[in-house]
């Protein structure tokens, strides 16, 4: 299945597991319900929409099972609601159907039947593989009971966590669907916000469960969510696709998770809730040096600097990464902000924002120039006057160094500390300070001092804020 097109909606590029990202109110549920309605009318195969708000508890209720058996479209009508207060009671009824389907599968599939170790307990093991502190155990009555792990103490359904009950109910639903599918037909499972009530770690477990389930090649899945933790769990799965749904759109172009998203999605996935993400936004930086600088600044700030630096592998990659981050910010979060930072090099310092992405350029040529600012030199235990004297001695030392011409050019520039290209001689300069600190650590520690107010924001020549630039300095410390 790579295309679902029915005039009123258009989904392209689909694979086995497809994630539809979008913030609340973007129309994810509406789109899934349209897909479910049209494909059900066409009778293409098994089509199952799973509602986002799944209430109830894991107790058997005869009335629910009776409605499933005799209620015609009762189950589909209940699932079509955004909230179903008896979903988990329905899951217990579905468990009975799951057992019947599993036993029929064993009976009719010669390869499975030949494996005497394969029983209905093999299916139960898949459910229990999602759980850590509890397990389900089948009973002679055709239902299941809950027990602690370890300890094997029987539990009442009302005593388990909402996350555990969610996983059990979703697992039963998905396993029942898989065993209902005719592999010769088009079967689609539509999961609306399966992340509800699930900690990000449990979301990752559930995605691993789904990957194993779709390996049977019987069906495909479309997941509507605003949790980037779910998408992050699919980073290494080749048959995953994702799309970001713009508000009220009925078109979704699904695509593979390329290198850009592999880099940025784990950062977004750490904060699936937009208010948390807004407190620690992503900052795209050119490379590993800048990433280490800001990692150190964050560590040294005692919680006052909250960013997630993400190296993009070079300035040439920044535009593509910026486009991807803007897409995620707009499609998943409400009122979130992201940042990107690049070196000035030889160009203009000014750079326009791409809302909600705030963009910076350093006022100095590159991050290496931060080494020779007055405050960073102080962090390394020296001053510019002392460093200049050491450079002069280095230049006249016998033997000649392969970088001698570059250091000579630095001197000839009048020691243009802000604009000279120091990349090739940065390690020599650090060595001449006498400091054992890596330069990225020293720069990061000094930035944290500005953030914490330990040193003033000074924009005079050769000061750190002057090199960082007004816009970035005022963002780091308003």
UniProtKB/TrEMBL annotation:
**Pfam annotation, one family:** AAA_15
> Is Hydrolase among the key words of this record?
yes
Q: Which UniProt keywords apply?
A: Endonuclease, Hydrolase, Nuclease
Record domain AAA+ ATPase: where:
14-248
Give the Gene Ontology MF terms in alphabetical order.
Answer: endonuclease activity
The reply to whether Hydrolase figures as a keyword in the UniProt entry is yes
Q: What is the protein named?
A: ATP-dependent endonuclease
The species is Ohtaekwangia kribbensis
């Amino acid at each position: 299945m790579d295309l679902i097109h029915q005039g009123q909606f258009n989904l392209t590029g689909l694979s086995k597991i497809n994630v539809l990202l979008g913030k609340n109110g973007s129309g994810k549920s509406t789109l899934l319900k349209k897909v479910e309605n049209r494909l059900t009318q066409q009778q293409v195969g098994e089509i199952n929409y799973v509602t986002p708000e799944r209430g109830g508890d894991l107790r058997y209720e005869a009335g629910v099972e009776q409605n499933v058996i005799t209620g015609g479209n009762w189950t589909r009508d209940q699932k079509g609601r955004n909230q179903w207060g008896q979903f988990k009671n329905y899951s217990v009824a579905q468990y009975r159907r799951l057992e019947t389907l599993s036993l029929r599968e064993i009976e009719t599939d010669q390869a499975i039947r030949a494996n005497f170790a394969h029983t209905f307990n093999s299916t139960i093991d898949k459910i229990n593989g999602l759980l850590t502190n509890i397990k389900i155990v089948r009973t002679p009555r055709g239902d299941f009971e809950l027990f602690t792990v370890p300890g094997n103490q029987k539990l009442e359904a009302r005593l388990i966590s909402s996350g555990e009950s969610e996983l059990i109910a979703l697992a039963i639903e998905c396993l029942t669907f898989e065993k209902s599918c005719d592999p010769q037909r088009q079967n689609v499972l539509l999961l609306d916000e399966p992340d509800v009530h699930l900690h990000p770690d449990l979301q990752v477990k559930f995605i691993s469960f789904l990957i194993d389930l779709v390996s049977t090649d019987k069906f495909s899945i479309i997941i509507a969510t605003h949790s980037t933790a779910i998408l992050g769990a699919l980073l290494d799965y080749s048959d995953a696709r994702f799309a970001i749904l713009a508000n009220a759109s009925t078109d979704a172009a699904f695509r593979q998770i390329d290198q850009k998203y592999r880099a940025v999605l784990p950062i977004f996935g750490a904060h699936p809730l937009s208010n948390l993400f807004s407190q620690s936004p992503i900052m795209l930086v050119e490379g590993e040096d800048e990433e280490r600088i800001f990692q150190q600044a964050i560590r040294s700030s005692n919680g006052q600097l909250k960013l997630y630096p993400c190296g993009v592998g070079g300035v040439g990659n920044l535009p593509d990464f910026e486009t991807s981050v803007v897409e995620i910010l707009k499609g998943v979060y409400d009122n979130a902000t992201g940042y990107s930072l690049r070196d000035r090099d030889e160009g203009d310092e000014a750079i326009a924002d791409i809302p909600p992405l705030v963009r910076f350029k350093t006022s100095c040529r590159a991050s290496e120039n931060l080494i020779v600012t007055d405050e960073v030199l102080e962090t390394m235990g020296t001053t510019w006057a002392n460093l200049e004297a050491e450079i002069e001695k280095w230049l006249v030392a016998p033997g000649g160094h392969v970088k001698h011409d570059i250091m000579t050019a630095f001197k000839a520039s009048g020691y243009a500390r802000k604009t000279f290209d120091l990349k090739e001689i940065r390690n020599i300069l650090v060595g001449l300070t006498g400091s054992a600190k890596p330069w990225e650590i020293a720069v990061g520690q000094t930035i944290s001092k500005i953030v914490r107010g330990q040193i003033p924001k000074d924009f005079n020549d050769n000061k750190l804020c002057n090199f960082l630039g007004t816009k970035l300095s005022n963002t780091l410390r308003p």
